[in-house]
Amino acid sequence: MAAIDDDDRPKKKIAHEIGQExxxxxxxxxxxxxxxxxGEISRLETDMAKKRASRSAAxxxxxx
Length: 64
Prior knowledge:
Elements: H1 27-62
């Protein structure tokens, strides 16, 4: 049986839980989590803007 190379192992996905203990994380891990959170904030803001535009269009359509 062949040994498992590091490249063959599944990559650990960066995840962050709000309120998670941070003392054991490196500076690099903290930076990666910040980028992850910034990306998620951007995605949420984009979706929120789409929903507001959709609601605004519906309000204008049904306005008396």
